[in-house]
Amino acid sequence: MKGHGLGLRIVLKQEKKEYVLEHPCPKDLAASATTAERRAHEKHCNDWLDVGYLKLATMSPELQRQYEDSDAFSMIEGLHGMFESQARVERYNTSKALLGSKLELATDVILQSLPPSFEPFIMNYHMNSMDKTLTELHVMLKTAKDSVKKTTTHVMMIQRDSKKRKCKGKGKGKAEDRIQKPKTDAKPKAGPFPSDKCFHCGDSGHWSRNYQKYLEEK
């Protein structure tokens, strides 16, 4: 049915009649309709009949009897509702079959559905060849979930503290750069030099404070 439906859409698209599947049957025109409107309405009605018969031809005998008096748009709407309900029932039956299958298969389905944060748990489960019931596995997953939350919180705190230390380190370095080192005191000038004159006797090469004669007279 699905293959025939896809093939029908390809044909209708090539014939430029696919719009009939997306719009209901046109209503009767008013008496004041223009010539162009009447021609468009007539074309739509003719396309509507052609597509309806083509659609019926692609159906099974049971569906043909069910939709033989329906237009193409109504057929599409009805089939969508029918197959969507059928798909929902099939999905439910598949899930039920999985949950009612062997324990190993049910466990694999649960482990495959876990998020990436549970990878350590899954690895540990397989490495230790654990064989747990669904109830025991549920308890283990609850414990692992709490552990994952704590680990995630701890990692976030470490990252936050690391960023704070980096920021403080950068600020401290800038502050130290701004602090000017104190200037060291200049060394005392050595002397006397040969060119220095004594204020007491007027000779060069010594100072009056180091001149023995001046000190004796003082």
Structural class call reads mainly alpha
Order of helical and strand elements: HHHHHHHH
Give the helix tally: 8
Q: Structurally, how many domains make up the residues?
A: 2
Cα Rg: 49 Å
The end-to-end distance, rounded to whole angstroms, is 135 Å
Mean pLDDT over the residues? 72
How would a textbook summarize the main sheet? none
Low-confidence stretches: none
Summarize the model shown.
GO terms for molecular function: nucleic acid binding; zinc ion binding. With 218 residues, the protein is mainly α.
How are the SSEs ordered, and which strands pair?
Layout: H1 2-14, H2 35-57, H3 61-67, H4 72-99, H5 103-112, H6 119-127, H7 134-178, H8 212-217
Describe this entry's structure for a reader.
- The chain contains eight helices and no strands.
- It has 218 residues and is mainly alpha-helical.
- It folds into two domains: 2-100; 112-175.
- It has helices at 2-14, 35-57, 61-67, 72-99, 103-112, 119-127, 134-178, 212-217.
- The termini are far apart.
Characteristic key phrases:
single chain; CCHC-type domain-containing protein; Znf_CCHC_sf; 65% helix; mainly alpha; nucleic acid binding; 218 residues; zinc ion binding
